Amino acid sequence: QDKSGLDAYRNLFQFDPVKGTTRLLFDDNQCLASIRTDKSGSVYICWNPVFFFGLDKSGDPDSTGYLLASSSTLLIDYVLSKISCERDIIVMAGSNYLEALLFISSFVTSQDLSYKLSVCYDDMNVTIQFLNWPTPQKIINFISQLNKHIPNGYEKLSCVMVNKKIYLQVPAIRSYLKPLLYLYYDLLCDGSLKLSLLKSD
């Protein structure tokens, strides 16, 4: 299925095979689960309960983990408010490309960095506005690089300008969202950013 899994972990149940009971973990898209929030090591962000289980059972005992039900602005801002600026953030994207893109773009905005993205989405498309990029040519180069990573047979992308603002509309499917996420992260990563992306699916 060529989707990013936007609502894949809403209304998630946790099963106890010994007791034969179930428990509702998330009841809407504003929920999260966390582990070791009193620790001071790296902070792991994920949307996949399998990743979260691994963090809980075998992760760094000094790390903190968050499992998010979605990437709503309210939820992301809440999590970012809980993380001190000197801690490393590790985003475990898995196949949740859109969710990871939203988190990283929110992090960039919270740190008031260059290369901001304003990201809006629906079931069909993701609309991006480029904010605080050094030059329009940087945006054109980024989209050109993105087009090189889109598989053959898929329509290439081009930006539009409305009222002196530059936008890009991207189909909300894996073939576009995966290279978009990876290229955006690579653009930001200069060694000083306290954020990293695990690029495993």
How does this model look, in words?
31% of the residues lie in helices and 26% in strands. The protein has 201 residues and is of the alpha/beta class. The N terminus is likely disordered.
Strand order of the largest sheet: 3-5-4-6-11
Which regions have little confidence, pLDDT < 50, spanning 5+ residues?
A: 1-11
User: Gap between N and C termini, in Å?
Assistant: 14 Å
- Number of helices, where a helix is a run of at least 4 consecutive DSSP H or I residues: 5
- Characterize the largest beta sheet: strand count, sense, and whether it forms a barrel: 5 strands, mixed
Question: How many β strands by DSSP?
Answer: 11
Net shape: globular
What is the average per-residue confidence, as pLDDT, rounded to a whole number? 85
Helix-and-strand structural type: alpha/beta
Approximately how much beta-strand content do the residues carry?
Answer: 25-35%
User: What is the succession of H and E elements?
Assistant: EEEEHEHEHEEHEEHE
Radius of gyration: 18 Å
Helix content: 25-40%
Q: What's this, in brief?
A:
31% of the residues lie in helices and 26% in strands. The protein has 201 residues and is an alpha/beta fold.
Topology overview:
Blueprint (H helix, E strand, L loop, with lengths): L12 E4 L4 E4 L7 E4 L7 E4 L2 H10 L5 E5 L4 H9 L7 E4 L4 H14 L5 E6 L3 E7 L4 H14 L10 E3 L2 E7 L2 H15 L6 E4 L3
Parallel strand pairs: 4-5, 4-6, 6-11
Antiparallel strand pairs: 1-2, 3-5, 7-8, 8-10, 9-10
Helix pairs in contact: 2-3, 3-5, 4-5
